[in-house]
Amino acid sequence: MKILSLFSGAGGLDLGFEKAGFDIVAANEIDDCCYETFEFNFPKTKLFKKSIVELKSSEISGKIDGIIGGPPCQSWSEAGKQMGIKDPRGKLFYEYIRLIEEIKPKFFLAENVSGILHKKHDKAFKNIIINFGKLGYDITFKMLDAADYNVPQNRKRVFIVGIK
Predict the structure, then answer these.
(1) From CA 72, how far away is CA 133, in angstroms rounded?
(2) What is the pLDDT of residues 40-56, one digit of tens each?
(3) What is the rounded CA–CA span in Å between residue 40 and residue 140?
(4) Active-site positions?
(5) Which of 43, 80, 148, 160 is deepest in the core (most CB within 10 A)?
(6) Can you tell me the distance from the alpha carbon of 123 to that of 95, in angstroms, rounded to the nearest whole number?
């Protein structure tokens, strides 16, 4: 299955999907500190080196079966200012939704920090889930801790999965 990775960073989420048998055919990242590592680990993947706001679905060639990515977490992090959807980075969830709407993959997975489930962000999070659902996906989300999956650290993350 062919995957588009958004907010790819150095490719950690991509690596997990690749090891599970998926083909990462295109990716997007704005942070130039990540480019060299991503391109080393995924030499055949087309990397769009720009903001997701500037990424057009027409630039992505071929059929995309799934979209994965972790929109910026700073807006939702308990360690930050917790501005949520009021932070421009928090609004980037809507760009993720835009590309899902345009590309219409079979599934998507969005990952973020546990702080997104904080009561302070309840309205914004519910709105994000509703917007994913409006695209015709069955949506589920769950907070998981990496320590429960043989990773030697407590690292709680929220996974939102949508399936057509």
Answers:
(1) 21
(2) 999 999 999 999 999 99
(3) 33
(4) 73
(5) 160
(6) 18
CA trace torsion 117, 89, 85, 155 (10° rounding): 10
Rounded CA gap, 28 and 47, in Å? Answer: 6
Question: Mapping DSSP to helix (H, G, I), strand (E, B) and coil, where does residue 45 land?
Answer: coil
User: Please, are residues 112 and 80 in contact by the beta-carbon 8 Å criterion?
Assistant: no
pLDDT tens track for 65-87: 999 999 876 665 666 666 556 66
pTM score of the predicted model: 0.91
**Gap between the terminal Cα atoms of the chain:** 15
Residue with the two structure tokens 């989300």: 141
Whole-angstrom distance, CA of residue 14 vs CA of residue 111: 12
40 residue type, one letter: F
The alpha carbon torsion through 20, 26, 32, 36 (nearest 10 deg) reads 60
Kindly tell me the number of DSSP H helices and DSSP E strands found in the chain.
4, 7
* In contact, 113 and 89? CB cutoff 8 Å: no
Note whether 156 and 114 are within 8 A (CB): yes
